[in-house]
Automatic annotation (TrEMBL):
Source organism, top-level taxon: Bacteria
Record-linked PANTHER family: TRANSCRIPTION ELONGATION FACTOR GREA, TRANSCRIPTION ELONGATION FACTOR GREB
GO molecular function terms noted in the UniProt entry: DNA binding; RNA polymerase binding
Pfam families the record matches: GreA_GreB
Source organism of the structure: Sphingomonas trueperi
Protein name per its UniProtKB record: Transcription elongation GreA/GreB family factor
Record-linked InterPro entries: GreA/GreB_C_sf, Tscrpt_elong_fac_GreA/B_C, Tscrpt_elong_fac_GreA/B_fam
Region (Disordered) location: 1-20
Record domain Transcription elongation factor GreA/GreB C-terminal: where: 82-151
């Protein structure tokens, strides 16, 4: 039998496990961000200690490496200027005739279902630097968003 058809073990044919991808750019967070990341690290460390299965433990360790990197690189965003949207701002807007309140946060703090958008998300990015009363271009439409109010979270 040819060497090409011989299989030494099942391990050599598994897909490689790559590290979790890190978002591009700086790891800016709100003032609450470092505590949130530390909580994730602590929870993962506890889960790793309690996990009995090797494959599941390796997956948890992989996730822990991601969160340790995020903790090491986290930078609290500079304080907001009064009335200017930025990281750590709650912004009330009018888009397509509908009012909406979003919070602009760091990537790891984002929860789009709860209208907590990462500063790199298209809508949040369009609002960065916008002031109360200003109209902002979005989605290829000029002045699509009206900024009604801006306050710190």
């Amino acid at each position: 039998m040819s060497v090409a058809f011989r299989r030494e073990s099942d391990e050599e044919h598994k897909e490689p496990k790559f590290e979790l991808p890190l978002p591009a750019g700086p790891n800016l967070v709100t003032a609450a961000g470092p505590a949130l990341i530390a909580g994730k690290v602590a929870a993962l460390e506890a889960a790793i200690g309690a996990e009995g299965e090797d494959e599941a433990r390796e997956a948890l360790k992989r996730e822990l490496r991601y969160w340790n990197t995020r903790a090491a690189t986290a930078q609290v965003a500079p304080p907001l200027e009064d009335g200017v949207a930025g990281i750590g701002a709650r912004v009330r807007i009018k888009l397509n005739g509908r009012e909406r309140v979003i919070e602009i946060v760091g990537h790891d703090e984002a929860d789009p279902a709860a209208d907590r958008l990462a500063f790199q998300a298209p809508l949040a990015h369009a609002l960065l630097g916008a002031e109360e009363g200003e109209r902002v271009d979005f989605g290829g439409k000029p002045e699509a968003i009206e900024v009604l109010a801006v306050e710190a979270i």
